[in-house]
């Protein structure tokens, strides 16, 4: 697990070491970051088209996924706004107010990119083996650019690493997700340790689906995948809508994805000041996903 986390952080660190004085070059980097978001989301849709073993037991998979999604998401969204009340956080929405309809439109664009990738993967007679490696490579470039933005934002490394708001978000997400998982397990008449395991994916849909599938079978694996994928897609829509008034809520709902896939959206919608908070919370949650999931399924 540690090598994997270092793999994610290396481009961020390298980018942070690159000072740039040219405003035009920085503007180009900002625009490139936004463009790469669309590319990665399109590849996400393609990867969905290559998903196996979802047709069997589909009704049970959907029931599990929807129930856990509603219970966990509700608990998260009940608690996270309290953090925003206690810990005031400034955002930088491009120095101007964005109409709600415009933010909703931007969110829908991102969702349609995913849907477009899914349709293309289902219709086009092409191999999808290249999608995951391509996504990883583009993600590393994206993180490198975000590291450069951090370096040239005026923030210190101490501000990035020692971030109480990021830690508070992670703790809140963990505790409220477990509460939601226990409620969902009770509603579905499942073992409570299974509910806690399902609740410990924190948005990391690929790893969560693999771990649950290996441990408890394809029904749990498929449900976990859809649960965390739905969380990420809803986060994509909610972040631009919420981050102006409830930045910690917007960052927190992204869960583990706030340090990678939803990080550029957080940066674009809320400004560079939100990035350290997102990285810290996402790092902690990502680190704990395999540890907590394997612990609970072993009980």
Brief descriptors of the model:
LysO, transmembrane helix, Lysine exporter LysO family protein, 299 residues, transmembrane, 77% helix, mainly alpha, globular
Description:
This is Lysine exporter LysO family protein. The chain crosses the membrane at residues 6-26, 33-51, 63-87, 108-128, 134-154, 166-188, 233-255, 275-298. By secondary structure, the chain is an all-alpha fold. The protein is 77% helix and 0% strand. It contains 13 helices and no strands. It is globular, with a radius of gyration of 19 Å. The model is unreliable at 95-100 (pLDDT under 50).
Are there runs of 5+ residues with pLDDT below 50, and where?
Answer: 95-100
Which term fits the overall shape?
Answer: globular
Please provide the count of β strands: 0
Quote the distance from N terminus to C terminus.
21 Å
Characterize the main sheet. Answer: none
Radius of gyration: 19 Å
Keywords: Membrane, Transmembrane, Transmembrane helix
Organism: Enterovibrio qingdaonensis
Pfam families: Lys_export (PF03956)
Protein name: Lysine exporter LysO family protein
